Amino acid sequence: MRVAVCQLNAREDRTHNLAVARDLLDRAATAGATLAVLPEYVDYLGPGAGMPEPEPVDGEFATFFAAAARDLGMWVHAGSFHEAGPDADHTFNTSLIFNPAGELVEIYRKIHLYDVEIPGRVSYQESRSVAPGDRTVIADIDGVPTGLSICYDLRFPELYRRLAIDGAKVLVVPAAFMMHTGRDHWEVLLRARAIENQCYVVAAGQIGDHDPHRTCYGRSMIIDPWGTVLAQAPDTVGITVADLDLARLDQLRTDLPSLANRRL
Q1: How distant is the alpha carbon of residue 65 from its chain centre?
Q2: Hey, is 211 helix, strand or coil?
Q3: Tens of pLDDT along 183-234?
Q4: Is 110 a catalytic residue?
């Protein structure tokens, strides 16, 4: 199974962001990817005042990526977007998965919300405007059970262990990881989730500056179940591709049966 992580610098121009996303999907298809993964908030990452109106899961955002999946004959993980939420003050941070026919096959709403206060560095309360999801999700992507998550979920290993216990072999992490935490924690956490759950990890990140005065770390990467980084994006907009060897995953789980040996 060949996968591509698409790294971009989404800002306040939604039309431009979507055009770049489509170009990256085109490049992923040309590279032979079965699945392409986009980052968190792929269509808009900018000031709250300019945020597009939240949409249902069958709105313009979904229509755009459904058409891309259908045109390219490829599985598309559309990163995430602001889905219309439970009330007027809250959206959901939502991932949509489309099959090569352009059909929406799975929906995941981010469970863990980024409420962080680091004096002098970051002040962000995602829960002020985003409602949490309430279910874990495994998508069947081309026959491969794939556990879904978004960005800050990465810091909660119990989510990924549940996905692994429920059968996931691939874990997907679209993100907009901040620079100050990303440079120390991003790769460490991704590799830990791969090793402890004996899964491939496919992580697509935002890169570069965006208003208001924030910078995303990038370094999108694909990691094997041994914790080896198979591919890592350079610090620019683009795609990175790697092949997932599911037979190797099964062999690793046989040789070192840590999932089978767990007692809790």
Answers
A1: 15
A2: coil
A3: 999 999 999 999 999 999 999 999 999 988 889 999 999 999 999 999 999 9
A4: yes
Range of the domain at 41: 2-261
CA distances to 73, 76, 85 from 34, in Å: 9, 9, 31
On the 0-12 / 13-18 / 19+ scale of CB atoms within 10 A, 221 is buried
Which phi and psi (to 5°) does residue 29 adopt?
-65, -40
Question: What's the 3-state SS for 153-178?
Answer: HHHCHHHHHHHHHCCCCEEEEEECCE
- Total domains present in the chain: 1
Does residue 201 contact residue 238 with C-beta atoms inside 8 Å? no
What does pTM read for this prediction?
0.96
- CATH classification at residue 30: 3.60.110.10
In the set 110, 169, 199, 216, the catalytic residue is 110
Residue 100 neighbours by CB distance under 10 Å: 16
Given the residues 6, 83, 151, 169, the one annotated as active site: 151
Report residue 32's pLDDT band, with 50, 70 and 90 as the boundaries. very high
